[in-house]
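Regression report. Comparing outputs from two consecutive submissions.

Submission 1:
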Amino acid sequence: MGGFFGRVRGVKEASAAFDAYITETVAAGAPEREARVKAWASAPHARDCHPLRAEEHLAPLFVVAGAAYDEERGARIYNDSNAMGSGATLSAWEFRS
């Protein structure tokens, strides 16, 4: 998110790394998915990709990852590697069985 406002140098690489972490997280099985969601702040460039003190931007991910059945896996359904012309990666995911 900071990349949209010029706060993050290397926004393309930073947001792509965080996007890859979340994509791997939602695709993981339930135990690994839970551990990775809980550890989101230690993901590559996690803090660079979100407004300061605004973890609630990830609240929808926390809710759907927790509500997904154990056998469900997340999949990326949208990806833009130049969101709003910023160079930042923006993605969306869904869970399916």
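Submission 2:
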Amino acid sequence: MAMTGEVETMRVQRALIDSLYTESMLLADEARAYFDVVGREQRDMLGAMDRVVFSCESLKVTTRLMHCIAWLLTQRAVAAGEIAPVEARHPSRRLGEAPVTDAAAI
């Protein structure tokens, strides 16, 4: 019976990872579209230094989303048996710290 519980847990984890991956991809696409279209219009109304800050912050957002997607892909690879869980825990595969935003920039 314990084996059935483990299989069910793994199935739920895989479904959760797949769902988060899909949502992350959609969010990344929406963020990119915002920064490419709406954000460009708003950025053009800013002064030179504020445009640089806006561009840096948009890069932070999209980069962080890509880090999350890469982490989720690692989790999918573990669930599929493509890599061992110990490999997934290697520091190069960790999500890592988010970049800090200067309070004045906000």
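Expected: both submissions complete independently.
Actual: both completed, but the second showed a warning that disappeared on reload.
Relevant detail on submission 2: Residues 2-44 form the longest helix (43 residues).
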